[in-house]
Write a structure and sequence with these properties.
The complex is a heterodimer of chains A (189) and B (659). Chain A is mostly helical and 189 residues long. Chain A folds into 2 domains: 122 residues, Rna Polymerase Sigma Factor, Chain: A (Orthogonal Bundle); 64 residues, Orthogonal Bundle (Arc Repressor Mutant, subunit A). Chain A contains 10 helices and no strands. In chain A, helix 9 packs across helix 10. Chain A starts with a helix and ends in a 5-residue tail after the last helix. The N terminus of chain A is likely disordered. Chain B is of the alpha+beta class and 659 residues long. In chain B, strand 6 and strand 7 form a beta hairpin. The longest helix of chain B has 36 residues. The two termini of chain B are 30 Å apart. The chains are: A mainly alpha (189), B alpha+beta (659). The interface between A and B is large, with 81 and 59 residues.
């Protein structure tokens, strides 16, 4: 709980840390390798957690996080500051998850199997774990847009506006996807 | 619906995520650093090579009419550029090794264009490459423009008030300061498009005649491509299907002579997205006169130098693309430059295109800066055009990112002004740059009133396509006011629908009225129009119960339709007519045998319809569209079709088909 909160505050509110990372971005864009190393080191944990939340197992999350890091290295120059850097990273991560899952749809069964035994750092109480895991499972199985909206808003604890920015859609559409997700999962919840 | 229980989704908040393994993290970071360094290396190369290459290009002026097919090399050759370090830039722009490279371009590199091209700017300025979009204008621009303007402003003649000189570090500071607010835009907004309704299905018995103006604009495709590559689905009104289709070169048979400037090619084949209908494709290729027969051109560039032009993909891109164009001009041609907004005035008096050094240095001195003050730009530009008027092409070329503050405020008055000037023989083309502020509607309106084309230059490759490969079409008009009229035979065709051309629709009576303006065709242009037609008996619309059985179609044999094209030869006021019946002899049973051009145009149409969320043809999956386009790639010397295939894939990822 604590750990995830710490991860989240760094991501959402523009604060000194945020400004600092924007500055790093700029330096890295100008070819400063050290700045880039620092930046990516900074981002890695968050990327990994996001990937884990989306796909539900550590090996895939590691692969995805690495792909995201490589992509950041290659594409940082094209980051145009149109959105916050953290949003951009989110977008890349989510796209990467999607590509990864599409590429490996055949392995879908394995993914679920892993999810069941995914190690969690702080095991919640027994009952929580059961509902939670069932819920997580259901959420991860939602259609992509609904899943992305729900996870961004709830698991990542972002505002609808941020989620909209990340997904490149309108704020109202985020609410709509969340609503649809509720409808889809009505039986389960 | 209020839920009294706690929101189940709230539980998602409490989920702990495992800590990443250190080994995995280390591996990822190492890989990322490697990728970053590779990228940094790569972008250094063009930065060094570019300015020199620009000068060198004029040495090869004797080759200037040789079309270098590939302009996309810079895009994909990022990796190759690493290997071919010292050869760099001028190699690919002046030798024949281009086409093969373009094919080997790695597909999953969505944005290398931006990375490879704007390098010269990156090296000296901190901010512009990451500048927030124009939507955040009120906060960002002031300090930013200095970084680009400062180096070039030093050389600006005294007539131009220099902006407050600010040290370059200012830009850096501002980037770090809280003033940097880049989070407001969810989608790139601010670009304006004329909204239009899709062409609807028409019943051949009730409305047998379809009339439209040919047009060869391609701005929509460039815009759509840029949006998709940046990961956005373009808004429906930005997708004009005819511009998508006409972006690509097609191999239609050439017209015989300047007097009969084009020869239509008509084909009928089954529709891939609807097995009850067929596509009637009308392809036209403009006559391409030999180089010595091209009349002299008198070009006046009217360049927007407002602050917003100070971004790598705007003024700097314009300068580089301009140098390309210059190499396409002959000694008979004259060039002048007028600026407006920012610094206003004549930057270059009419100068023979042979005096390249003078033109290039005038160009180099252009700098974006200041506010949009004092601007008699457009009148000045037309005055210069009048002065240097030649018996050939007289054209004002407006280059802007959407700031049309050219001295005439009222858009209607501006259109009228341009129309009046058009009648005196001076046409207007518009080159659009950048994104976020682009006023597509005005751009289209001005170019259409000015008998010119509107092109959107999103990157260097695009500039090369418009200004080098299609320079003939862009500059040398071979036919004016080209109108197409198709009359369908209700005995054989029950319904029809024109795909695209919504904004170019004409009334039936306009066809023979020579006073009604329509699009112009340039040398070598290819234009394609597609109709989706439903054979008699397969119609979706029920016949009228009480309607008088419409006049029995005259016994016209087995003709499906009758095609008429009206055009005026340049400078003439009376139109000529080309007529051609569409008979079953041009009908094919299978799209595969109708030729790759037909297949490709159909794939592009399907793509456009799907992207627009059209009521027609959305059933085709992205994969089917991709397969169709892929099978129709053909020689694809410019790599455009391969790029389109990639774009379809991008679109499929952004808007997946329902499963």
């Amino acid at each position: 709980m604590q750990a995830s909160l710490v991860g989240l505050t760094a991501a959402s509110i523009p604060d000194p840390t945020h400004a600092y990372s924007e500055a790093l971005v700029r330096r890295a864009q100008n070819g400063d390798a050290e700045a880039f190393a620092e930046l990516i080191e900074d981002q890695y944990d968050r990327i990994f957690r996001t990937a884990w939340r989306w796909c539900g197992n550590a090996p895939d999350a590691e692969d995805i996080a690495q792909d995201v890091c490589v992509r950041l290295g290659a594409a940082l120059k094209s980051f145009d500051g149109r959105s916050a850097f953290s949003s951009w990273v989110y977008r890349i991560t989510i796209n990467m998850v999607r590509d990864f899952q599409r590429a490996g749809r055949r392995r879908g069964a394995h993914v679920d199997a892993y999810a069941e035994i995914a190690p969690t750092e702080e095991a919640p109480s027994q009952e929580d774990a059961a509902t939670s895991s069932q819920l997580w499972d259901a959420v991860r199985r939602l259609p992509e847009k609904q899943r992305d909206a729900v996870l961004l808003v709830y698991a990542e604890d972002l505002s609808h506006a941020r989620a909209a920015e990340i997904m490149g859609i309108k704020e109202a559409t985020v609410s709509f996807h969340v609503h649809e997700a509720r409808k889809t999962l009505r039986g389960l919840l | 619906m209020t839920d009294h229980r706690p929101d189940p989704f709230d539980q998602l908040r409490n989920a702990p995520a495992p800590r990443p393994r250190d080994a995995a993290k280390a591996a990822a970071l190492a890989a990322a650093r490697a990728a970053f360094e590779a990228e940094t290396e790569k972008s250094k190369i063009p930065a060094k090579g570019n300015p020199a290459a620009r000068r060198l290009m004029s040495i090869f002026a004797s080759f200037k009419r040789i079309s270098i097919m590939d302009m996309r090399v810079p895009i994909g050759t990022a990796a190759i550029a690493l290997l071919v370090l010292p050869l760099g830039w001028q190699l690919y722009s002046s030798t024949a090794l281009s086409p093969t490279q373009s094919v080997s371009r790695p597909a999953p590199a969505p944005q290398p264009v931006e990375e490879a091209e704007p390098a010269p700017v990156d090296t000296r300025s901190e901010a512009p490459a990451v500048a927030p979009p124009v939507t955040t204008m009120p906060v960002a621009p002031e300090p930013m423009l200095e970084s680009e303007a400062a180096p070039s402003m030093m050389r600006i003649p005294s007539a131009v008030p220099p902006p407050p000189a600010a040290p370059i570090t200012l830009a850096q500071d501002s980037a770090m300061s809280p003033a940097y607010i880049g989070t407001s835009a969810t989608e790139p907004s601010g670009d304006e498009f004329t909204s239009f309704d899709e062409q609807r299905l028409k019943i051949a018995a009730e409305e047998p005649v379809s009339t439209f103006s040919l047009d060869v604009d391609t701005a929509s495709y460039s815009y759509v491509r840029r949006q998709l590559e940046d990961g956005f689905v373009p808004e429906p009104d930005a997708v004009r299907i005819e511009e998508l289709i006409n972006y690509f070169p097609y191999d239609y048979p050439a017209a015989p002579s300047a007097d009969m400037p084009f020869k239509p090619t008509v084909k009928v084949f089954p529709t891939p997205w609807n097995d009850k209908t067929e596509i009637m494709a009308i392809g036209i290729r403009g006559y391409a006169p030999p180089a010595e027969a091209i009349p002299p051109s008198n070009l006046v560039f009217l360049i927007d130098t407002s602050g917003s032009m100070d971004e790598p993909d705007k003024l700097p891109l314009l300068k580089r693309s301009f140098a390309l164009l210059l190499d396409q001009l002959s000694d008979k041609d004259t060039v002048s430059i007028v600026t407006y907004a920012g610094s206003a005035g004549v930057a270059l008096e009419p100068t023979s295109a042979s005096d390249k050094a003078k033109i290039l240095s005038a160009l180099d001195e252009l700098g974006a800066g200041g506010s949009t003050a004092g601007a008699e730009g457009i009148e000045l530009a037309y005055r210069l055009a009048e002065q240097g008027k030649v018996d050939g092409t007289n054209r004002v070329i407006l280059a802007t990112d959407g700031d049309f503050n050219v001295g005439i405020d009222d858009p209607k008055a501006l259109e009228q002004f341009i129309t009046k000037k058009r009648q005196s023989g001076i046409s207007l083309s518009v080159l659009g740059f950048g994104r976020g502020n682009l006023d597509d509607a005005t751009m289209q309106a001005l170019a259409q009133n000015g008998n010119g084309n509107a092109s959107y230059l999103s990157n260097f490759a695009e500039a090369k396509k418009v200004l080098v490969e299609e320079v003939g079409g862009t500059l040398h008009t071979i036919a004016q006011d080209v109108k197409v009229q198709v009359e369908f035979n209700p005995a054989l065709v029950s319904e029809y629908r024109l795909i695209g051309y919504e904004t170019r629709h004409l009334n039936r009576e306009d066809f023979n009225n020579d006073a009604v303006d329509a699009g112009d065709i340039g040398a070598g242009h290819t234009v394609t129009a597609l109709y989706e037609i439903t054979p008699a008996g397969e119609g979706q619309v029920d016949p009228l119960r009480y309607g008088s059985e419409t006049t029995q179609p005259a016994a016209s044999g087995d003709e499906l339709a009758f095609l008429k094209i009206r055009y005026k030869l340049p400078g003439e006021s009376v139109s000529q007519l080309i007529e051609q019946p569409v008979t079953p002899s041009v009908a094919y049973d299978d799209i595969a045998v109708a030729g790759i051009d037909a297949q490709f145009a159909t794939a592009v149409a399907a793509f456009g319809q799907k992207l627009r969320g059209s009521a027609y043809g959305s059933d085709m999956t992205w994969a089917e569209i991709e397969a169709l386009a892929r099978s129709a790639r053909g020689m694809d010397e410019g790599g455009y079709r391969a790029e389109f295939v990639r774009l379809v894939r991008d679109a499929a990822m952004l808007e997946p088909d329902a499963e």
